[in-house]
Amino acid sequence: MFKVKIATIAVLVGGILFAALSYLLPVPHLSDGYRSLIDEASYHSTLAFLFISSTYGFGGALLFLLGLNGLSTAFRRTYYSICAGFFIQSLGSLYYAYGGYRGVIKNDTFYLIAEIPLMIGIVVIYIGLVKYARLLRISNPLTKPVFVTIGFILLMAIVWVLPHRSDVGVTRETLFDIAHALQSVELISYAIIALIAAQIHDSVGPLYARSIWWLKWAMVTAFPPTLVLFLGDYVKLYKWINSDAMSLLFIVTSIFTICSAYAFSKITRTHVKQQVYDNSLLDSVIFLGSLASNPTDIDPILDKVRVITSNRTENTPLDAQETHTLQEVYTELETYLTTKEQLRTFSRAGLTELVQERFNWTPKTQSGNTTG
Asked: N- or C-end of the chain: fewer Cβ atoms within 10 A?
């Protein structure tokens, strides 16, 4: 866990350092024929925002990778996709920073090239979240790529025929239309991913919920500035909206991504857990239940525990029947986690070790032999 904390601090400090160094870059001469999102006064602040955003995006992807040990193969593939998506998107942000430095950030050719990795990256993240949802057996139109793809095609067709502002100064109409069609996919993808992440958060176990909660809000905060960028060439928005504030939201998105990655890395890390009921067997059963990624799968098993806890008063010892029932539940949970858990890999010996670390107690089977 110490390695993850150091890496997280290094990413946060690195983004700030790169942003500070960007102020040493000279303001470029903006050639005639190019449209620019920035003027000379806001050049450095925009460049700094882009450097921070791209650094935090790269860093968040790497931090996710540090948390993959101990997870199931299928779940690791989910986060390989998510990491790849953030990495690809960060390349787009970095390319935008390059365009800002060269003073061609709104040249139509450049705009299209920059939009491609942003759109591809968010689609790859979407694919990862769909895999995650399927592992939890979440199914709806948003988790079906065929339906979403059809929606994207219709959306791009509508965007293609939208009339842009007459004062935008488009240099190549086709490139302009393609870039905005791709940006519309990026925009709606943020909303779709946020909705899927919310559904996963409501379905997943407590160990996994914090990470997906941060990821949901990363997508939510990315939506408004992307919407402003998209609409800016169709409606005069910058007259009322501060562009630096919109850029700041992208940094917030990147910080939320880092928070999600940090929470994700803690899923399989060992932490001492305080006892709740002052009984090692009961606390161990509750602890094993918390390891399940899909609580609905083990609800029938835990119903027996709820009966015991609802009738239990503080410091009251378990009777023989309650002890026998909890031993059965412990065995059922152990079997579920080692054979049916979708997101993480467990062994009986590993679960015994986890229980020993937290409660200084060795679980036993109903026959009295040590579990594992």
From this structure: N
